[in-house]
Amino acid sequence: MKTNTNYLLLSTFIGGIIFNLIFWSERLAINLLIYSLFVVTVTFFNKEVIKSTKFKWYALGHLAAAILVVINNSNLSLASYYISLLLFVGFSHYQRIRSVWVAIMATTLQVFAIPATMFKRLSELEIGNFKIRPVLRPLKYIIFPIIIVFIFIGIYSGANKIFEKYAAELGDHIANVLAQFFGFLFNDLSLERFIHFCMGLALTGGLLITFYEHVFEKIEASLSDDLLRKKNKNRLKSIWSEITHAFIGRVISKKMALKTEYVIAIISFVGLNFLLLLLNGIDIWWLWLGKGKNFAETNYSAELHDGTNALIFSIVLAMAIIVYFFRGNLNFYSKSKTLKTLAVIWMIQNCVLVISVLIRDAHYIEVYGLTYKRIGVIVFALLCIIGLTTVYVKVAKHKTFFYLLRVNGNIWYILLLASATINWDVTIVKYNLTHKGLIAFDADYLLSLSDKTLQVIHQNREELNMSASSYGSLVPKGEILVSSTDEQLQKRLDQRIAFFKERYEKVSWLSWNLQDWNTAKYFGIKK
Fold first, then answer.
1. Transmembrane stretches, by residue range (predicted)?
2. Phi, psi (5° rounding) for residue 152?
3. What whole-number distance in Å separates Cα of residue 289 and Cα of residue 307?
4. Rg (CA), the chain
5. What is the pLDDT of residue 469?
6. What angle do the packed helices 191-208 and 30-44 form, to 10 degrees?
7. CA distance 473 to 336
8. Largest CA distance in the chain
């Protein structure tokens, strides 16, 4: 154990140095892959971590996310990188965890608990015959009071302006002393860079060193995928049950009779199925079949923005209602077959509702072009279909809410990695430029996207010029987009290219990524 502690502490120190060297004044690119390779390698040789199949899959998933950052270098790829890092660390150090949500919480706790964990590990450190525990023992009487004092300095500074002024002056004086001290010891080391090193040290320690309290593993150990029939027992009333009883009586209280709950569920699902049948009938007639009105006169913006958010919310609420009624013994009720049939019909109708959302979004894209929000609607609709499918499995197979969280979490993670493989910025630009004569072309939006689109836009810079003929015939009257003038658009493009050249020449090979390299190669930028 002590040998492994020495290994982890040495790795943490090396990781802090690597963090400082590869991230200081650099963009997030290939340096993230380097850092991930270091974290995965150290974790692999950590004797406390079991090299299970789960460890290998999440290690591969994280390294794939790091490679996607180098290839696409998009915000989505960065998001998938951070999430995959949290999952890799969580599932590596706490392999009894089964849910991605719990793994993320476990990693977050581990990172924030690094001061306590480091103090414990340092007390186990041995250098030859020298033990560091006696040296650290007096510090525990000093560190905690200092932390408390600084917390209350922040609180009192917010409450009193004069106190805040004196506290700020004291902080500036301490910072100047530290800057002079480090400047005297290391001419090339600034206080800011030392703080950056400390941040890297803390983060690396949080990722490499297991928090000694396996809190979330203990909590999740009591959770199961399968529902079990529970016998009623006399339980103490909680505050919530008392409030519920006071305002609503026994209608939805915890002591509601199973038969009463069954009747309420039947009435609810009959009413909800009838309402949704009316709504779906209207959508199929007006939207799917295009009857009753001319689509050229449709206000797609109002229909999508006003309707889609409400529909997606209703679908999520529908899943919540089903989960509520099928949370316990109602699954095993002798007459529950009718209720389950009504619930399945409602789920099918909700899937029809999702299709209506997709048709609305498709019409909107056909008229106004492709944007991130419209792609997001497609993604949310897909997630709703997946959610409804897993809810059906829950009802049919008597699964728990924990099962829904576990399965959907894994599916969403896979979808996140899959979506990060697509260069969405370039896809949006190419689609809108190709369909310029058919859509309400928004050149300002295209110029607001990332630098990876500069090559495509520059190749089609004449297409940025706006004129009355630029708007497609499908665009409804009164919804013509207001755009910059042709001169302003061309000037903005030139400024974007100049800013990219300046930025690209400032950073080193540590900020290398495929998209920037391709753009620099196109514009003939050499370092």
1. 7-23, 29-45, 57-88, 100-119, 139-159, 194-212, 262-288, 308-326, 338-359, 371-393, 405-424
2. -75, -25
3. 18
4. 29
5. 46
6. 40
7. 54
8. 88
DSSP 114-125: HHHHHHHHHHT-
Terminal Cα distance for the chain, rounded? 48
Q: How does pLDDT run across 215-274, given as a tens digit for each residue?
A: 888 888 888 878 776 665 544 444 545 554 554 554 444 445 678 888 888 898 899 889
- Residue 4 forms beta bridges with which residues? none
Q: Note whether 518 and 455 are within 8 A (CB).
A: yes
With beta carbons less than 8 A apart as the criterion, state whether 441 and 466 touch: yes
The whole-angstrom separation of Cα 65 and Cα 70 is 9
Separation CA 176–CA 254 (nearest Å): 62
* Tokens 């860079």 sit on residue: 193
Q: Tell me how crowded residue 146 is: count the other CB atoms within 10 A of its CB.
A: 10
**Do the Cβ atoms of 440 and 480 come closer than 8 Å?**
yes
State which amino acid sits at residue 264. Answer: I
Which of 30, 2, 34 is CA-nearest to residue 17?
34
Residue 333 pLDDT: 75
Is the C-alpha dihedral spanning 466, 470, 476, 478 positive or negative? positive
Mean pLDDT for 62-87 is 96
pLDDT tier, 55 (very low <50, low <70, confident <90, very high otherwise):
very high
Q: DSSP 3-state assignment of 471?
A: strand
Q: How many angstroms separate the CA atoms of 339 and 325, rounded?
A: 10
Rounded to the nearest 10°, the torsion over CA 153, 155, 160, 164 is 40
Q: Are 12 and 201 in contact (CB under 8 A)?
A: yes
pLDDT at 83 over 50: yes
What CA–CA distance (Å, rounded) separates 211 from 109?
A: 8
- What is the DSSP-derived secondary structure letter of residue 47? T
Q: Which residue has the higher pLDDT, 296 or 169?
A: 169
Distance between CA atoms of 336 and 332, rounded to whole angstroms? Answer: 7
Contact 308, 359 (CB under 8 A): no
Rounded to whole angstroms, what are the CA distances from 374 to 93, 413, 416, 456?
Answer: 39, 21, 17, 21
Per residue in 90-113, pLDDT (tens digit) is: 999 998 999 999 999 999 999 988
Containing H/E element for 126? Answer: strand 126-127
Q: Which residue has the tokens 């498709």?
A: 362
Q: Per this entry, what is the length of the chain?
A: 527
**What are the start-end ranges of the H helices in 284-335?**
300-325
Give residue 325's Cα distance to chain centre: 29
Locate the domains of the chain by residue range: 2-217, 252-399, 424-523
Q: Span 459-480, mean pLDDT?
A: 62
By C-alpha distance, which of 372, 472, 382 is closest to 425?
372
